[in-house]
Design goal:
Layout lengths: L2 E4 L1 E2 L11 E2 L1 H13 L3 E2 L2 H10 L7 E7 L3 H14 L4 E4 L23 H9 L3 E4 L13 H19 L5 E3 L7 H9 L4 E3 L14 E2 L6 H11 L1
Parallel strand pairs: 1-5, 1-10, 2-3, 4-5, 5-6, 6-7, 8-9
Helix pairs in contact: 1-3, 5-6
């Protein structure tokens, strides 16, 4: 089943980040095509659980994942998702909520992230959330394993304490991981972890199809059809 990866849904932003930014018009066209083509959405953990029981149970489903908790998800993406009756999975860098994407500042003014109160509303509306570390580092570049573990488990602990629900899914910032990092994520008790590349290598290196603002609508359709 296609697991799609988005970041920002916005018209404007630094040129160096154009790849990670899908315009609202393009996003709405993609959602309309998915709906017209008979796709429904599933939360990532729900999809994983269902596919383990019966792979045929997830036919014509798609998982829409969003990294980094950008505020334009609240203002722009979520209303369009609701319009088409689609759900989503949001990966949250807990240390930056209510602030900005400081990891992008080399490209220009960093985009705003949603507040905790806005995330509260999304969770109440059924958006699935996953952990995305505390400070959005390149985990494979950290030598100290205790520091990696703190980033991995710290984000989940904050989310579980706030929402009183298990947080079984994890996304590697920048997709960066190696066997050591994946092992720490597995040992932390997550069910699965996603990367930013399409190829999968087991539940702790689950591939996603990147949906990029620099690609055409036809490229989007081709990706989904090939994965479905």
């Amino acid at each position: 089943m296609p697991v799609l990866m988005y970041h920002r849904i916005a018209d404007d932003g630094p040129e160096g980040l154009a790849r990670w930014r899908v315009t609202p018009a393009d996003f709405e066209r993609q959602l309309a095509w998915l709906a017209d083509s008979g796709f429904t959405t599933s939360g990532l953990d729900d999809w994983h659980t269902a596919s383990q029981r019966d792979p045929t149970a997830v036919a014509r489903r798609v998982v829409l994942t969003f990294d980094d908790a950008y505020r334009d998800f609240v203002t722009t993406a979520f209303p369009l998702l609701q319009l088409h009756g689609f759900g989503a999975t949001m990966f949250v860098p807990t240390g930056f909520m209510g602030g900005a994407a400081e990891w992008d500042q080399e490209f220009g003014p960093p985009a705003a992230l949603m507040s905790w109160q806005e995330l509260d509303s999304l969770v109440a509306a059924g958006v699935e959330i996953g952990a995305h570390t505390v400070t959005h580092p390149r985990l494979d570049e950290i030598a100290d394993e205790a520091t990696i573990a703190a980033e991995v488990t710290g984000s989940r602990e904050v989310l579980e304490a706030r929402y009183r629900q298990p947080i079984p899914t994890f996304a590697y910032p920048y997709g960066r991981h190696d066997e050591r990092v994946a092992g720490i994520v597995a040992d932390a008790g997550f069910h699965l972890a996603v990367t930013i590349e399409p190829a999968s290598a087991g539940p702790f290196a689950l591939g996603r199809l990147g949906i990029y603002g620099t690609e055409s609508f036809d490229a989007f359709v081709a990706k989904v059809i090939a994965a479905a």
